[in-house]
Specification:
Blueprint (H helix, E strand, L loop, with lengths): L17 H8 L19 H15 L9 H13 L4 H12 L14 H31 L8 H11 L3 H13 L5 H14 L3 H8 L1
């Protein structure tokens, strides 16, 4: 779903800014010492409250189609603005992990360098997504909250995309134990994780 830009008390749109976009795109770590607005995850109460509300609404209706270039940049800027808000981090991680890094339209002319660059961009995208989902889970715990449904399932998917099948299975098993996602979705990912690990027997067992 399309999200609205945050506004200040007068109703004026508050742009997130090129500097924020750049730091988020580079996976910059959030600064420390946020002051009185830390419980809301950022330095500006009004803006971060709006972004948190948007994130909660978005998480409830996530679709792969949310991973447009515009949405990826938009959620990265939101992380930069409110780097301690678990709801913002969670949605940003999902959108980042759903990004598809393009190859040349004609694969017949793609060079080894093209393929290597695409692979590198994909891994960087998923590493950033993992940092954000881990930060969201850690912040949920710090606040004494249980992570919303789907959090550990998404984390498992991200780890699997990174080729970290053992950790992916651990995340997916936790998802299954907590009823974090629909059982068939978790089983499907567990089957894929077994295939990545080279265990075809386990893959077939999980799939059926």
């Amino acid at each position: 779903p399309k999200t609205k830009e945050p506004r200040d008390r007068s109703g004026k749109v508050q742009p997130l800014g090129d500097t924020l976009a750049g730091s988020a795109a580079n996976g910059a770590e959030p600064s420390k010492g946020l002051g009185p607005w830390e419980p809301l995850g950022g330095t500006d109460y009004g803006i971060c409250k709006q972004l948190r509300d948007q994130a909660m609404q978005t998480w409830a209706t996530l679709r792969e189609a949310t991973a447009t270039p515009e949405n990826i940049e938009s959620w990265a800027m939101r992380v930069a603005r409110c780097p301690y808000d678990p709801e913002v981090l969670r949605v940003a991680a999902f959108v980042q992990a759903s990004a598809v890094m393009g190859l040349p339209a004609d694969l017949a002319v793609a060079t080894q360098e093209d393929l290597q660059q695409t692979y590198q961009r994909t891994m960087e995208s998923h590493e950033r997504a993992l940092r954000w989902i881990d930060a969201a889970i850690a912040e949920d715990g710090r606040r004494g909250m249980r992570s919303p449904q789907g959090t550990h399932y998404v984390r498992g998917r991200i780890l699997l995309a990174l080729g970290r099948s053992v950790e992916a299975v651990q995340a997916l098993e936790r998802s299954r134990a907590e009823g974090d996602a629909r059982a068939y979705k978790v089983e499907r990912m567990l089957a894929l994780a077994a295939m990545v690990a080279g265990d075809l027997d386990q893959a077939f067992a999980a799939a059926w």
